[in-house]
Write a structure and sequence with these properties.
Distance between the termini: 54 Å
Bound molecules: zinc ion
Number of strands: 12
CATH topology of the largest domain: TIM Barrel
CATH superfamily of the largest domain: Glycoside hydrolase/deacetylase
Number of domains: 2
Shape: globular
Number of helices: 10
Structural class: alpha/beta
Largest sheet: 6 strands, parallel
Radius of gyration: 22 Å
Length: about 350
């Protein structure tokens, strides 16, 4: 009888997404961060990861499925909060990171096609993991100062929010204030008080007003610049980059009465001219994301959070390895094998939400 390996993947609520069966263990998938094998010790005479062909590790018959991978319907042990907390503590002891959010609020394909918002319950869980595992929360400016342009000391996390969406004031501010946590908000000044251009009109989402931005500044949030018109700076020359940076910084300093020290490249795009302009404008640091950047002051990397993230991907993003991992061949394979299940699960949740709205 041939041995095989089972690797189970879970959603954030612990429900089973998929089981991948391979002849050899998948080397790239971190069992701590991305997946968790569920074969119990002693459940199978062949050992932890082995199971008879056609049976799962508990001896139950596996259903027939197309292709190389099989799914089982049985409910297996979830990735518990204890496992997540232990994992977060391991990360805290080794690394520091800057997380990039846009908004916190309801999200679905109808109103938020880019999944820029993270659901409040998911954000609370992520914040809880950071605080319980002992991360020290700092602003982007403070983290960059403490890193000195090199890899920062471990255990620091900075929460950053791009664009200036209204839920940063209505949802994020009270939640973070409750826990004594400060964040950095990078504001696109040309959008202040206007409808949110990234959300569907029926969402009613808008960008923060000057008064709301003042509340954030008064609560100790760091205010950073994010240009006037949110252009792709990798396509602009030095002079245009510098104008966008200076005008947005000057307007924020004038209207809010705060010092604006840091800058975020819109959509994380930048080129040599933008880096030079950020330095010439007098910012202490400029941040990017999406696998770009390093710990250099004007190309500081961040991990982009999405409304699709569950606990496992949140923890992977906390390590800073999510993007390289997810774009590697094994990472792409893992995402491809779970894509259909994830899409169906999201669609079911959205249908439930819609029924709830109607009722
Ligand atoms: Zn932006």
């Amino acid at each position: 009888m041939r041995a095989s390996h089972l690797t189970c993947q879970y959603e954030s609520d612990g429900s089973l997404l998929n089981v991948i069966r391979t002849k050899r263990a998948l080397p790239i998938l971190s069992r701590e961060l991305v997946t968790r094998t569920t074969c119990e010790q002693g459940a199978n005479p062949r050992g932890r990861d082995a199971s008879p062909r056609g049976r799962d590790c508990r001896g139950a018959r596996l259903p027939r499925a197309r292709g190389r991978y099989r799914k089982i319907r049985a409910s297996l042990a979830p990735m518990t909060s204890q496992v997540a907390l232990r994992t977060a503590r391991l990360i805290r002891a080794r690394r520091s990171t800057i997380l990039l959010y846009h908004g916190v609020g309801p999200t679905n394909t109808r109103i938020d096609p880019g999944f820029l918002r993270v659901r409040p319950e998911a954000f609370r869980e992520q914040l809880g993991l950071l605080l319980e595992s002992g991360f020290e929360t700092v602003t982007v400016d403070e983290l960059v100062r403490r890193s000195g342009g090199r890899k920062p000391p471990p255990g620091l996390v900075a929460l950053s929010f791009d664009d200036g969406m209204d839920d940063n004031h209505s949802v994020v501010l009270p939640l973070l204030r409750e826990h004594g946590v400060r964040a950095t908000v990078f504001v696109t000044t040309g959008l202040i008080g206007k409808p949110n251009p990234w959300m569907a009109p029926e969402s009613g989402a808008r960008m923060m007003t000057v008064e709301e931005l003042r509340d954030l500044a008064a609560a100790g949030f760091e205010i950073g610049a994010h240009t006037v018109s949110h252009p792709d700076l990798s396509r602009l020359g030095f002079d245009e980059c510098l104008r966008e940076m200076r005008e947005s910084r000057d307007e924020l300093e004038r209207t809010l009465g705060v010092e604006v020290r840091t800058f975020a490249y819109p959509s994380c795009h930048y080129g040599p001219a933008a880096v030079e302009a950020a330095r010439a404008a007098g910012f202490t640091a400029a941040v990017t994301c999406q696998g770009l950047g390093s710990w250099k002051r004007y190309e500081v990397r961040r991990s982009l959070m999405s409304g699709k993230d569950g606990t496992a991907s949140f923890l992977a993003k906390l390590t800073g390895f999510y993007e390289p991992l997810s774009t590697s061949p094994p990472g792409r394979l893992a995402r491809a094998t779970t894509r259909k299940a994830r899409t169906m699960k999201r669609a079911r949740a959205e249908r439930r939400e819609l029924r709830g709205d109607i009722n």
